[in-house]
Amino acid sequence: MAKVELERVWKIYEGKVEAVKDATFTIEDKEFVVLLGPSGCGKTTTLRMIAGLEEITRGTLKIDGKVMNDVEPKDRDIAMVFQNYALYPHMTVYDNMAFGLKLRKFPKDEIDRRVKEAAKILGIEELLDRKPRQLSGGQRQRVAVGRAIVRDPKVFLFDEPLSNLDAKLRVQMRSELKKLHHRLEATIVYVTHDQIEAMTMANKIIVMKSGVIQQIGTPHEIYNKPANTFVAGFIGSPAMNFVDSKIIQDNGLWIKSSGLKLKIPKQFEEQLEEYVDKNVIFGIRPENIYDKMFAMAPVEGENTAAVMVDVVEPLGSETILHLVAGDDRLVAVVDPKTEAKEEQKIDIVFDMNVMHIFDKETGKAIL
Amino acid sequence: MKRVIIVLAVLFAAFSVFAASENALEIFSWWTGGGEEEGLLALFDLFHTYYPDIEIINAAVAGGAGTNAKAVLKTRMLGGNPPDSFQVHAGMELTDTYVIPGLMEPITFIYKELGILDKFPKDLLDIVSYKGEIYSVPVNVHRANVVFYNKKIAEEIGMKKEPTTWAEFLMYLDKAQQKGYIGLSLGDKNKWTSLHLFESIMLAELGPEKYNKLWKGETSFNDPAIKHALSVMKDLLKYVNSDHSALTWQDATRLVFEGKAFCNVMGDWAEGYLKTLGWRPGVEFGWFAVPGTQNAFMLVSDTFGLPKNAPHRENAIKWLKFLTTVEAQDTFNPIKGSIPARIDADKSKYDVYLQWSMNDFSTKSICPSIIHGSAAPEAFSTALMDAINKFVTEQDVNKAFKEILWIAEDNGYVTD
Amino acid sequence: MRKKNLVIGISVVAPSIIAIAIFVYGFITWTLRVSFSNWNSFSALLRGEYKFVGLRNYIRLFQDTRFQTDLWNTLFFTLFFLFGTIALGIIMAILVDKGLKGSRLFQNLFLFPMAISFVVTGTVWSWIFAPGNLPNNPQGLNLLFQKLGLDNLMWGWYTSTDSLGHFNLALIPVIIAAVWQLSGYTMAMYLAGLRGIPNDIIEAAKVDGASEWKIFWRVKMPLLTPITLSALIILGHISLKIFDLVFAMTGSGPNFVTDVPAIYMFELTFRSNRYAMGSAIAIIMLLFVAIVIVPYLFSSMRGEKR
Predict the structure, then answer these.
(1) Rounded CA gap, B148 and B170, in Å?
(2) pTM of the predicted model, to two decimals?
(3) Is residue C38 included in any domain, yes or no?
(4) With contact defined as beta carbons under 8 Å apart, do B85 and B54 qualify?
């Protein structure tokens, strides 16, 4: 029952620093939307504008169709989970969770019911009498989430809530939050710089950079059809390979760079015709490059290259190869049984069906 | 405070050890400002012309109208480290504090040797004596029972003759008040001035003879005259400025100077103050003895004594002999604005007021001041000061009288 | 080697320990001893014969109306002074913390009085509150009131001998002066405290639905409790021992309306030579301060252990 709409929203600090530029997007009811981007990209500012903690310089914010620009945070019916949890140090866990309800003059037994229920969901029933300083980081995180849950708000806002947890706990909390989303059927806006969090939890990802929205889409779209080199490079790990190349005509279209010459599949030829003899950026994800010995994609000799192995990084489940072809450097994630050795040549295969081509000037995706 | 005194005492001790090896003379006083210091330095200069070899160490301690100096002195005396000679008020401040505990040497021999026993008023020498021996040399004399008044206002209210009775005085105060002036200015922020006023009234009511006998234990405090003095004080308080407890004695004197108040009861250091403000005695301001005390001279006198174990006893005796001379007294007093203790001093060196005072000094009965440490021990005077301070507010004659009797009894005076 | 360090350590610390033992605890013990003696005149002190008189000096003090006034004055002065400095300190801290234009200037302006000696402020405030000869010749503030046509606000300030119960109204100007002098200090303490509160806690409260007022009372104030406690201790012991401000500003006042134990102690000891009585007051004042400080020391020691 909550829909958040931003229309041409700007945030300009002190009349000059533009933190958010012309952001327009809609968060549908019950959606889990992640604002993703590197630090300083304006994602937190955007979230804080939704919360009412930052003023909106220009544009309109609507929640459920009502303009919220000048509404106090306390009247927006939102709940927020902060990066540093922001628990009230002088209150017990119970009081921390009950505080918002008390302020809203809920009856005592209703408060009690809600707090206990939230505590049960989060598995912190034992901790209700403790003070925040007696809790571990993960426990504090749960309390912070609990404080938001009991309020049963229209919108939940999460500001990098997992960044202070250790890796193991982060994985666990991630799945719990996802479950929680299903259970509460709540609208969630979630800010993170961690693309894995974004990919695993979001219904919709909004990628931002330098205050500008780069792409809005499902995780699948963001991964498979990045709108530009920034999104393409930001999502996925190791990051996508970018190679400065030229498209040439030689009995069909080819990608030609200093170390590579790869045949462009037929289905793309039409789209790329106007770029023939022009400089473009060729993009290919490391997981779409194979050691020829284990290649599953069709090997036609037109999508292979002989390259020099620079570094081998075995990770157990897979092996990362740093490769050199002419002036081009490539990273490939290959089968761990690879026999590639440093300072040796190997043959690699490109899955050209999932290749990307970007405009050299604007970085925008052509393909 | 205590710590400061200890530190000072240690410093002095160190200093005196150093000084002891020299042909020195250490003079302790609280004369550190204005005419007082100038007068003291003039005395030192004159002393030097007679004894060029003696190096004078000026151990003056500033602040608190002598309170700080007295505390330092007590510490030094207690620690067996006396100066060669020190300033002390004539009367109980000398005898009760230092003579009776046996810290002073009698100096009657100086008076006898110089043949000057008759050159000081007998009443004054009595005050600095204990069991027939004289213990100090009075250097200057202030009179405490004086009313200073604004001549212009006096003219305005038609005062032709200076009042000699309370009735007359109150009449003029009333007239002044009706004209919109403060009748009698008082500044008792530092408390002592209200006792200063009261002791003059007490003197007027008891008369000099009975007043002096109080301190010798020859007459009782339980005297209707003292009670009556309280009611006179109560009458006078009707004409006092309402903000008296916010003012110092200087402020009160200034009210007279500024033409806001008709008169003020103060010691004659107020005369010096009025002169520094630019007034001329007998021209802009007049004076008269507090009504009823015309034949008495309420005395405040600074004297110098000889402590036992003075490091330079011979020099100290030279100093004391020097102080008895007319030359020394006439050097110091015109500068300080007080009169010499010797009755044969050169009057021409003093202004009209001081000449009037000198006349009275040699002819009237001399009475010791309570508040200025001459009549009674400090414990008595401070307790009485507190009682009078309460009286000024409460104006309860019976209660105050009872309290005075208690204080007197506490301090061993006759109260039957 | 360790032995050598130990020797060096002891020799470094020893002088101060010895000095404290003598000049603090030694003197306290000595004062206590004097307070049980009959040394109530210079000659008694001089003779140095110690005569134990038990609690006589204390009993006399508590029967003394001046000392009773002193105790009431200390009580009321302390209460209003603490309330005033802390309330004003908080208000100023909040205003400065808002970061409005020129708040930096005000921050320094508010702090400045602390740098001035009590004697100076006492003297200046005694001029400001000097009532003048009412009703015709007002001075200071009264003159201002008259000029503004507020004649009925003129009163005797610290020369007033009126009281409400045991509260002498003349203390009001003294309290104002003391609050003026030290509220800047509490402001600085609270300002440091406010700036130490993480911003996200405040924001969390905002989102939780708290108004500014609620945030202040339910979130900020509880978090500033340690500051309030320190302020109470520091100001409390200043106020229980207050001397210089009152001495310079009003003396004891008419009928001792502004008298405090420290002034009485000073006068008994150095003016009346009643050393034993003065010592008794000193010990009583020490006890007062101990009542305030000792629980604090215990709680902070326990806190450290944990």
Answers:
(1) 15
(2) 0.82
(3) no
(4) no
Tell me the ipTM for this assembly. Answer: 0.83
Sign, Cα dihedral of B401, B404, B410, B412: negative
pLDDT category at A296 given cuts 50, 70, 90 is: low
pLDDT in tens, C190-226: 999 999 999 999 999 999 989 989 999 999 999 999 8
Here the CATH number for the domain that contains residue C167 is 1.10.3720.10
Measure A89 CA to nearest chain C CA, in Å: 8
Residue C270 at interface with chain B, using a CB cutoff of 8 Å: yes
Chain A residues whose beta carbon lies within 8 Å of the beta carbon of residue C209: 74, 100, 103-104
**C87 falls within a domain:** yes
Q: What is the three-state SS of B69-134?
A: HHHHHHHHHHCCCCCCEEEEECCHHHHHHHHCCCCECCCHHHHHHHCCHHHCCHHHHHHCEECCEE
Mean pLDDT score, B126-139: 94
What tens digit of pLDDT does each residue of A11-64 get? 999 878 899 999 999 999 999 999 999 998 999 999 999 999 999 999 999 999
- With an 8 Å CB cutoff and a minimum of 3 pairs, decide whether chains A and B touch: no
Question: Does residue C124 sit at the B interface (CB-CB below 8 Å)?
Answer: no
Q: A: neighbours with 3+ CB pairs under 8 Å?
A: C
- What pLDDT score does A169 carry? 87
Position B33 scores a pLDDT of: 76
Give the span between the Cα atoms of C237 and A337, in whole angstroms.
78
Residue B15, pLDDT above cutoff 60: no
What is the least distance, in Å, from the CA of C273 to any CA of chain B? 6
Range of the domain at C108: 65-305
**A104 interaction partners in chain C (CB closer than 8 Å):** 209
Per the structure, the count of domains in chain C is 1
Q: Do C203 and A53 touch (CB under 8 A)?
A: yes
The partner residue sitting opposite C223, judged by closest CB among A53, A90, A99, is A90
Give Cβ neighbours of residue B39 (< 8 Å, ≥ 6 apart).
Answer: B31, B331, B332, B333, B335, B336
Establish if C237 touches chain B: CB-CB under 8 angstroms: no
Q: Are A156 and A186 in contact (CB under 8 A)?
A: yes
Q: Which chains would you list as touching C if contact means 3+ CB atom pairs under 8 Å?
A: A, B
Nearest residue on chain B to C31, judged by CA atoms? B2
Q: Which residues of C touch B394 (CB under 8 A)?
A: 255
Domains of chain B with CATH codes:
23-142+300-368 (3.40.190.10), 146-298+370-410 (3.40.190.10)
